[in-house]
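Tryptophan--tRNA ligase structure dump, as promised
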Amino acid sequence: TFQPRIFSGIQPSGGLTLGNYLGAIRRFVDMQEENADRGIETLYCMVDQHAITVWQDPAALTRNTRELAAGYIAAGLDPNKSILFNQSQVAAHAQLAWIFNCVARMGWMQRMTQWKDKAGKNQQNASLGLFAYPALMAADILIYHATHVPVGEDQKQHVELTRDIAIKFNHDFGVDFFPVPEPVIEGAATRVMSLRDGARKMSKSDPSDMARINMTDDADAIASKIRKARTDPDALPSEAEGLAERPEARNLVNIYAALSDRSIAEVLTEVGGKQFSEFKPMLSELAVAKLAPISSEMARLMETPDEIDAILRNGADRARTIAAPVLKKTYEIVGM
Ligand code: ADP
Ligand code: NA
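structure tokens r here:
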């Protein structure tokens, strides 16, 4: 049995979205608070090596990494309670990923829906890194012997692949060395959808800025995006079943529910029967109220990038201390 340890990461591939916040960061903070006093470590990473699987402008990558760190801290992650760091600063991730590239099978990677979505029709032109991404993610998690991985729904398949890699490594080498980690996916907002297309997830890499709410959007931007969000002409139902065939409507209610820490059913008892012309301003007001304190704190933190860098350096030092013996032992097991 393995001592519980919590790891997750977000790509600094653009500004943080409401999807990242509701699907991931909020849970990171909860898990930090639940575990800090129990001696269970929580590690939260900016996964810059994942970001570069698609082209990133170098200056933007540096800025986005700091902004992501600022978002983590502004949302409640505390560098004294959690280890906050930048993936590329801990070389053991890439070192273990190479070994996992040799454990994982091509067919496993080919089945990943994110690979298919992101590579699109022209797979021959996608980077090799984009294809191998899940093996690096497995290394991110397993280099710390992490047992629990808080993620949004869209990452579930990658955590399952991490489990497959841990099991195959243990089996191939006849050891019980890597834990088989669990995804932690809970709550209403584990999948926040695009404001323009109810079949796509809200993503920082969506080319349309109108499709997402950014953590740094001001009140006017939030209100205008919600006003223009796609919906249907019907009034809101008073029960959740009434949203079954209405993905856009369901998404807005889901966001409202998540922001107010209520279930969709509870929200519908309040707003059932309302038109979107009435509901959308309520949603904007709530989103602004929840996001404004975080975005203003992010802006304040971004004024002192040296302090952010110092926090990340310290986090990387602590992360390296945990990773080093795991890598050493892995090399021994493999015979290197
Ligand atoms: P993005 O797609 O915005 O680049 P990442 O791939 O960096 O996001 O994912 C970071 C974390 O945020 C993951 O745990 C992921 O599941 C979560 N996440 C991303 N988008 C959403 C969303 N639309 N709804 C819920 N969770 C999300
Ligand atoms: Na993503």
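The chain has two domains: 6-184+304-334, 209-300.
lmk if u need the other ones
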